[in-house]
Amino acid sequence: MKGAEFNQDTMTLRGKEIEVTVGFLLQVELKFYPENPRIYSIISADDRQATQDQIEEALKAMDHVRQLAQSIKANGGLTDPLLVRKGDLVVLEGNSRLAAYRMLFVQDPLRWGKVKCKLLPHNIAEKDVFALLGEYHIIGKKDWAPYEQAGYLYRRHKRHGVSPTTMGRELGLSGKKVEQLIAVYAFMVDHEENDVKRWSYYEEYLKCRAIGRAREAYPRIDQVVVKKIKNREIPRAVDIRDKLKAIVKSNRALRDFIHEKKDFEQAYESAQTRGVGNVCYGKLLRFRTWLADAERVEDMDEMEEQIQAKCKFELRKIEKRCNGLLKGLDQ
């Protein structure tokens, strides 16, 4: 940084003006930010701090970084400067762009040796860094995957004690939505699942009420479902919403699935055989359950005579129609 020329500027963060300086730095001096959610999703597989070289190679392998490199080259440089923390020169915002610059640097070191940066104070608080990233990637361009967004919210909640309600207000989300994102991410962490592409599987799994009831009755189902998602026995997220939901509504199919007596498709076929998911069957089951409730007799006893007469009329019509349907099915 010696001899570099910088211009003074300010930026607004969490309602306060922060003094910054803008200028060019040698890109080889800059460091990737391991806590950046996109980077964190790469290195969290074995829960250890990746080296700068490992982070760089992982980012360079991403399609969006290759596209960025071509865009930067065509533009002749960055449109927006990297946000860098003064002192340790960690890139808080713009890690993908730094990786793209380093790809271009290999081709032409003189042309791409320096990169435009905005230097933030060296003592900027970690909570301000998280707020900054949230403003860029959740409120602004929203280029983080849902898994990466949830990871940001999860760590901010765990490490800095920021409530879902507070984060929701900052980011224009409901507190309930933030809680849901954190819950899905926490589930994936607890089950050592770090594949960004599988986020939608677990989102569907945790938001379904019928599956939620099955989880309360059979806690082992979590272990079974995660295993089958990882080995691709459950091939699509939509299968959680449609097929697993049908399985958990059939006690026999659910028990066979949990104890792995049947695989996912076999359990689903078993549930279908028992009529689960069939609209006609579902309506008949709900109606019969409602009629069988002991309170129905009390309800009808307490009715006015005129209403009782109407109910008797409807019940006789239902009885007649039921007999006709049964006769048709028997034939």
Mind explaining what this structure looks like?
A 6-stranded mixed β-sheet has the order 1-2-6-4-5-3. It has 4 domains: 6-124, Alpha-Beta Complex (Conserved hypothetical protein from pyrococcus furiosus pfu- 392566-001, ParB domain); 126-207, no CATH class; 220-292, no CATH class; 298-330. The protein has helices at 37-43, 52-60, 63-75, 95-107, 126-140, 146-160, 164-171, 175-190, 199-207, 209-217, 221-230, 237-248, 251-258, 264-273, 279-292, 295-301, 305-330, and strands at 6-13, 16-26, 31-32, 82-85, 90-93, 114-120. With 331 residues, it is α/β, with parallel strands linked by helices. It starts with 5 loop residues before the first strand and ends with a helix.
Keywords summarizing the entry:
17 helices, 6-stranded mixed beta sheet, 331 residues, Conserved hypothetical protein from pyrococcus furiosus pfu- 392566-001, ParB domain, alpha/beta, elongated
